[in-house]
Amino acid sequence: MSVRRLAEDAVQPQGFAFSAQNAEWAEATIRKYPEGRQQSAVIPLLMRAQEQDGWVTKAAIEHVAQRLRMPMIRVLEVATFYTQFQLAPVGTRAHIQVCGTTPCMLRGSDDLKRVCREKIHPQPFHLNESGTLSWEEVECLGACVNAPMVMVFKDTYEDLTADRLAEIIDAFDRGEGAAVKKGPQIDRHLSVPVGGLTTLNTFNDDDDGSATDEARTAPQTGGTPAPSDGGAGAAPSQAARVDTHAPETDPTIKGPDGVSKTHPAAEEATSVDLTNQSATSGQTGGTQQGPTGAAETNAAAQDKQSETSSGEARTDGPLTTKGVSAQSVVVLEEKFVDDSDRGSAATGQEDLSGKDHTATSTLEGKRTDTDDVLPGPDVGKGEPAKGRRGTKPKASE
Questions:
Q1: Rounded to two decimals, what is the model's pTM?
Q2: Of 156, 226, 312, 368, which shows the fewest CB atoms inside 10 Å?
Q3: What is the H or E stretch that residue 117 is in?
């Protein structure tokens, strides 16, 4: 970053004071900030001082610091940090800022800088012989689409050529800068394409050009619905709507049952009577599946709650229940063997001596027919273990 210093004392004025109009504006600007935060107005006041004298003088910095009750070094830090503040005298009639960023450079900004060197001074920030003109190269000024361009004070001059910039410089040097056309210097309106618009010229893509300009550009009003194709001719509020009409979503197309989607019988064909479903409908493998009515759901919840509160489930058989599925009953009544009742952790075997093998920790404990239950290796007292399936003896035994 370049070092920015104040101009030498030889060109510094002895004092500074806002004009009556600018002083009133400065007081109104300071009052915009909360009590104790008035120093935030330092940048607006420095900009107004530059607009009044053309550049920021040392006396102006001291005056702003005094008005905002700030140390002068704080105001000096702001003035030297931002390149928008001119710390040395500039041309009294024009200070030309040439944009040199990539878009303008690609469009010929080097030619514009060459013109400034020839007509003003070989080096930037230097005055011409009469002291009326100066120039500098700056970063992007925000008119890239109209590159290349320059800015003089607060006005921009765009779509420039070297010859056109030379004419503008001469006009400012003569004191006729106010008469120079601002903005694009070619036949272009603001930032529209060169030569005029090439799109959105008509409302109808099929327009052969026979329609009058008034009819072509007249806005559509009223409640006219947008056309189904979503194209030109639609109201402005409907012009960008996506066309959602398709055979897949057409409500008039008949479904697989041969009934139109909008036909009253369609609802009857697809409706399901849930109130006549039995309590066991949709059950497979002891679990409830499929749709059930609200009454069934409430009854099942009440049965389950009553069984839980009483501590036992009502059963009519090995795996059937009243109101709830057999699997739910097994889960409710299942009692797992506590880890403390298991055998030694070192042997990894369960000590089943002295235990009731008819415990209901498995489904076998709920069986009423135990003819196929074979004695296991843990039976040692001549009585087969009930509720546990043993190991079948080998044929050789």
A1: 0.49
A2: 368
A3: helix 109-119
